[in-house]
Amino acid sequence: RDSTASLVDKGATPKQKRKRLRKKRNKMALQTYTYDGPERFHSLVGQVMASLGYVGGREVRDVGAAVTVREEGAHLHVRCTFQDGGAPWSSEARLVGTDRERASLKDCLIHWHNRFCGHGPSPWGTLIGVRPTKLVHHLFDQGFTADQAEKALQTSYCVAPAVARDLVAMARLQRPYVTDRGRKVALYVGIPYCPSHCLYCSFPSRLIGREGEAELTAFRDAVLADLDDLADLCRTYDLEVTSLYVGGGTPTCLPLPVLEAMMTRLARNFPEACEWTVEAGRPDTATPDMLAMLRQAGVDRISVNPQTLQQHLLDALGRRHRVEDIYTMYENCRKLGFSIINMDFIAGLPGQTVADMQENMEIVCKLHPENVTIHTLALKKRAPLFHHELRAAIPPAEETGHMVRLCQSILTAGGYVPYYMYRQKYMAASFANIGYALSGSVSAYNIEMMEERQSVLAAGPGGATKFLCRDGHTLEKVYMLKDVDAYVQALAERIAQRRRLCAIIYGKEDV
Q1: Which tens digits make up the pLDDT trace of 350-406?
Q2: Which pLDDT tens digit goes with each residue over 272-318?
Q3: What is the DSSP letter of 40?
Q4: Spatial distance between the Cα atoms of 329 and 325, rounded to a whole number of angstroms
Q5: Which of 120, 462, 495, 497 is 20–30 Å from 321 (CA)?
Q6: Beta carbons within 8 Å of 255's beta carbon, 6+ residues apart
Q7: Cβ within 8 Å of residue 197, ≥6 positions away
Q8: CA–CA separation, 93 vs 2, rounded Å?
């Protein structure tokens, strides 16, 4: 890259920069950006801008950033203008056309955004992917030691030392779950129903109370046919399902006979699975009978997801249950003998304080679930919160960051170790969702799904089957339609697509 690149900073005194920074930190919104340039950079620019908190748009006015790339012989001319309501801020550079031009373009955009916001480099450096530990595994594949991997993250990607150390430690813990997988696969089953819509959620779930018996019967029968086809694929191509995950939505909001039929079929079709998780996150759906049915079917890992343990926050978010219901459900799960209980929490909820999160973590350490997952709130356009008055009550990024660090401090002191993570898209605050586990209780499925080092089969609406190709890193995918009715109608067609792709990859048939 030309180190003498032309940089243009229009206006902005230090006082104005600080004011602009405060404004940006307190405004949690999805900014839009536009791109004008060669198609071969379109995806890269999209990934970088998403990591900075921007979504692509077609607007010609009121955009948060405008990126332009022009090819000039052996050089690239790059320009970006950022806008947040005040005076625009523009920078431009002339990049030498080398094999690192993509990396140079990425570095420019990230560096300019840091200057525009008035803060220093992100602790993530120039890493932009949602799965940073995949890079560490790639370094280990090349023979890097842990120390060498840490150094590579710091020197080649400008990752902060503490973050580099944590990423390498997490990847080392994951290593047995991502190597020598052979024909071992994971299986996901999607249940897109909920008892009510939570304010922060953008998942396209249906309300169970609005479904009639005929619709639920059609849904059940389609999922059973989906599972039977996957079982046949596994027999035909000698695939071994080692982990099952039934998620949603809220699977336990289904009528007990409907969910029981699916659980019975899973137990019959995939008896070799050594880990079986069901999301039972809403205690208003996880009745004693429902939990007993799941345990009898063979479920050994269950998610009890309070998100927060303050009643006023639960009420504001549309979580129609009492805090006491969470404790009751947790106790029932212990009595039934689930070997692993996971609890999810969200940092950065509207009206949430650091004291609230500290109370959550202190309660967790008393209950002592085997797994705890800490999410950070990501404001999505499709979530009711996006247009709700409570959006103004979302804590500033500094406060949410304090919550996340507090969780890490309390959990690690309580014996929990971070074992998997993924970064949030469309958030410039560098937050990540992190799963913690007590010794010997990590979720294999969470690691397998996140690191993408083996095939993952999927059934149900919105399910994404991902076949790992023979090169060991490329994924070929087949998506089931998200809408329940559309899923039922298109199931036969998508099953045929999935079978054809499986035959190509595992049966070595020609394309």
Answers
A1: 999 999 999 999 999 999 999 999 999 988 888 899 889 999 999 998 999 999 999
A2: 999 999 999 889 999 999 999 999 999 999 999 999 999 999 999 98
A3: G
A4: 6
A5: 462
A6: 216
A7: 205, 207, 318, 384
A8: 8
Q: What is the pTM of this model?
A: 0.89
Strands (E), 100-239: 184-191, 193-194, 206-207
Amino acid at 79: R
Roughly what angle, to the nearest 10 degrees, separates helices 288-297 and 323-336? 30
Residue type, 284: D
CA distance linking residue 222 with residue 480, whole number of Å: 12
The residue type of 163 is V
| Residues 6 or more apart in contact with residue 373 via CB below 8 angstroms | 342, 343, 344, 345, 433, 434, 435, 436
In whole angstroms, what is the distance from residue 180 CA to residue 203 CA? 34
Query: Distance between CA 82 and CA 66 in Å, rounded?
Result: 7
Residue 4 burial by Cβ neighbours in a 10 Å radius (0-12, 13-18, 19+): exposed
Say how far residue 53 (Cα) sits from the centre of its chain: 15
Low-confidence ranges of the chain (pLDDT < 70): 1-30, 57-62, 97, 427-428, 508-511
